[in-house]
Design goal:
This protein is flat. It has 303 residues and is of the alpha+beta class. Helices cover 22% and strands 29% of the residues.
Length: 303
């Protein structure tokens, strides 16, 4: 007669081998910006401009010159922002880990919480870099950095020409503003629901289809510079399109990565010094966004 055998389940645990961090983990601005060193809570830099090329710049031999002041540099600046995230393991959790896996379980748990806090610092920094509003620090008010939109030259912040409709010409206008100012735009950040719309506008490009000679000497048609990829190809510049849930509604922010940097005044990890019944730590970063030239970015807002 068959006998039902029940296996020994003492000490067995559930199958738990995956941990997934959910939520907003975008760090586009943080990743693409160069990293630099700030020297003061108020970080400053200078920007200047060149006149367009003048083919008629010619002087008569023996001419006298009249000099005038040429020091027209503009002083730019941004405040550093102290971004911090706390993490910790309570005493009861520590005792539980020690009872079930030795000290390694405690140290690995604390390492995980520390890495999570560091990741959260990057996410918070990224949000401030894109849409942050500058705030002058006082003895009671924390300093905040101005984001990319705020640092962009006011002449490069504009509303699209056609009310309620985004066109290829609207985005190309912003790219040309930067191009003629001496920048080489290569990055654009849009709201998630606008990404597909912006990419599809490549279909409207005046040069979207070109005829070229292939190696066999036959003519063939090719789609524009990057076809249907995550790019927008303008008349003078081409940008890679990123979607970011932190982007301002109905807004496209375009800029040149090489003229964008995150200036760090200091980093600090504070462990075991927090009044806490367990093991606590704080991850602290003080930094600000620097845009080397305020015309190296453009912000387009839908009407």
């Amino acid at each position: 007669m068959p006998t039902l055998i029940t296996p020994n389940t003492v000490g067995l645990r559930e199958d738990l081998n995956t941990l997934d961090l959910m939520g907003d983990k975008h760090t586009i601005m943080f990743n693409v910006a160069k990293k630099g060193v700030a020297t003061n809570p108020h970080h400053e830099w200078l920007e200047d401009a060149m006149a367009p090329g003048n083919k008629n710049n010619a002087a008569v031999q023996g001419s006298a010159f009249n000099f005038s002041t040429t020091d027209t540099k503009l002083r730019m600046g941004n405040w550093t922002q102290i971004i911090s995230n706390l993490a910790g393991i309570s005493r009861s959790v520590i005792q539980s880990h020690l009872a079930n896996g030795g000290n390694y379980a405690v140290t690995s748990a604390l390492t995980y919480e520390k890495e999570k806090a560091m990741r959260q610092n990057a996410i918070d920094t990224d949000a401030a870099m894109l849409t942050g509003t500058a705030q002058v620090p006082t003895s009671t008010v924390p300093g905040k950095m101005g984001g990319m939109i705020q640092l962009t030259n006011s002449a490069h912040q504009y509303t699209n020409a056609t009310t309620g409709t985004l066109t290829w010409d609207d985005i190309d206008k912003g790219l040309n503003l930067m191009y003629t100012a001496g920048a080489d735009p290569d990055t654009a950040i849009v709201t998630p629901d606008m990404k597909a719309t912006v990419i599809k506008l490549n279909d409207e490009a005046p040069f979207k289809t070109v005829v070229v000679q292939n190696q066999a000497g036959n003519s063939e048609s090719r789609k524009g510079v990057n076809g249907y990829g995550s790019f927008f190809a303008g008349s003078n510049a081409q940008v890679e399109i990123y979607s970011d849930p932190r982007q301002a509604a109905n807004t496209i922010t375009m800029f040149e990565k090489d003229k964008t940097s995150l200036e760090v005044l200091g980093n600090a990890n504070i462990e075991n010094s927090i009044q806490f019944d367990g093991i606590g730590l704080a991850i602290i970063t003080e930094c600000c966004l620097k845009l080397r030239h305020s015309k190296a970015a453009a912000v387009l807002t839908m009407a």
